[in-house]
Amino acid sequence: MSNQVTLTINNQAITVPAGSTIMEAAQKLGVTVPHFCWHPGLSIAGVCRFCMVRVEGMPKLQIACNTPASEGMKVDTVSDDVKDAHKWALEFHLINHPLDCPICDQAGECELQNYYMKVGKYQSQMEDEKVLKPKALDVGDTLVLDTERCILCSRCVRFEDEVTKTSTLGIFNRGDQATIGTYKDKKIKHNYSYNLADICPVGAFTAKDFRFKCRVWFLKETTTVCPGCSTGCNVNLFQNRNQREYYRLKPKHNPDVNGYWMCDTGRTMYEHLNASARIASPLLSAEQVSYSAALKALGDEVQSVSADKLAVVFTAQYTNEEYTAVLQALKKLTGGMPKVFVWRDESEKEDEFDGILMRGDRNPNTRGMNDVLKAEGVKPAILKSDYSSLASSGAELTLVFGPEVESAYPNMAKALSRLAEMKKAVYFGNTLQEPAQKMWLRMPVKVFSEKSGTFVNFNGVAQKLKANAPVFPAVKCVSEYFGQLSSSAQSNV
Amino acid sequence: MAYVNVSRDPERNFKNGYLATSLFGMGTTLVTFAKQVFGLEESATVQWPEVEYQYSERFKGAHFLTKRPDGRVRCTACFLCATNCPAQCITIVAGESPDKGVEKFPARFEIDILRCVFCGYCEEACPVDAIRMGPEYSMAGLAEQKWVYTKDHLLDREAVKRKVADRQVSKKDENTKHDTVESSLPGIHAAHSNSGH
Question: Nearest by CB to A136, which of B175, B183, B196?
Fold first, then answer.
């Protein structure tokens, strides 16, 4: 028996591995079959009865998600009876739905709304009153549950059972009284809870973090890489372009990296991108100066020291291109390789892994940085709790490339005050923390959403970042600063 | 090439001439004047501002926000007016309403009246009859005046109170919400009843 079966969907032939369902074959072919309960990352439930298709030879319509494809099967997804089945299945789902779209955060990306426009458009024939159920329940620190909006697809129940294995949720009661809910005295408490709001096809689970903040149709998405840890999940970053304000991240499917999910820690990675968490101008000896003045001062200082009196402190949160550009520029300006240190947080447990996605190494580009340093022939000294190697290096100028995700560095203030003790310390980063202001020069830099470059994840997968328009147009990334320094030095010569 | 001779008006005659039309116009004026002097016809001129002209109820003047019967703002901060506004003059900041049955309400609702083009799309987009264009048409003011209408101004300004009175209370049916929901589902929601919104 062969491992492949060939079937035809709407008269198009497609070959899939034996055991695949009609839904998977349709997805492969690019035919959309409307569905609510089926999710590629979860097991098959077959409860929504929405993905009806006509299979030749079978007396009734079949659900595509749970019917295995077989050799020579003829499937039809566009015939009139199939369209009719979709239409009335949708009406069944909407019988008790409150239709409170104006106050629902899901409106705009709601599958009920989308399918109503695609396959619904019926005149409701219901005369009975809707069944009312509890609304706006607090089911954990991150989510709000509205049981009236729920269509009982059970995606969330399966997610809790299969992905996080916490089994907090269940469907209780029967018929029109059936309600989604948490078990008694249980709350949704794990690091993957926002995925429930993502996979919910309606607005039953909404994220507290995003609740009432912005309507989704104002948001534009950019596909980029999460800087939260060394896993490097692929994400869609949502920005309101008119307000220049970031609102949220959602996972993007990548079978090689993160699958369908991402963690709650990663979801906070939009907070440091907004103007309120950023600094707009350089600080030279505790005074605000222009970018050109700051760069000139920095250039003069770099050129006046020799390479062995120059220390560079990296964190693993910059792109490969930036590390290369900085080292190349410094080599050119000082005529030798400076002393390189790598700053890691004191409390970091690099090898930790939570079993799903999140890793203890909270820097996105540790592997990429090490690769670049190796290629440049540099052996960096690690600064973790012991800073004596830096203190005894006799550096007259210290360039600190600080982390953009400060939550990855819980002991940052302590480390910063140590670094500020150096003779002339320059800080590249957007921190608002006090000790950074004591340094000789503080330069704002671009964050991950504003630069293009490469992050290499723990597994050696190199992934490109995609640049959005910057929040502060004058702010550049470190490779641009050092590129300017080396080119202006050249023109002086 | 064909051309039209415009040197002489083909309709030129005594009846269309300057003198005849002037006398005809003067006649109309004198007849109307005489009618109004003897009280046979009412004047179309309004003695503004002492007397205010009454536009129809459908006149699209400055906006106001309607209220629920208990006096609170009717708006649920759904952003449909702001989405629909071609001049982008509506700014809304949504917040969690103290009333659990309402859930969402506008913490801020502002209209930049200088940007507004009075198209009425906001009124049309509103699913809950919360924003209306009012009868107020005289909005002249000084440059230093505040031209951004705040939520309080839109809800409670004198001109609206005087002119629309009880029309400011929306009679649209309210959705039945949380307050009336007696959950008889055994043992599920008891855990949430204290901590829920």
Answer: B196
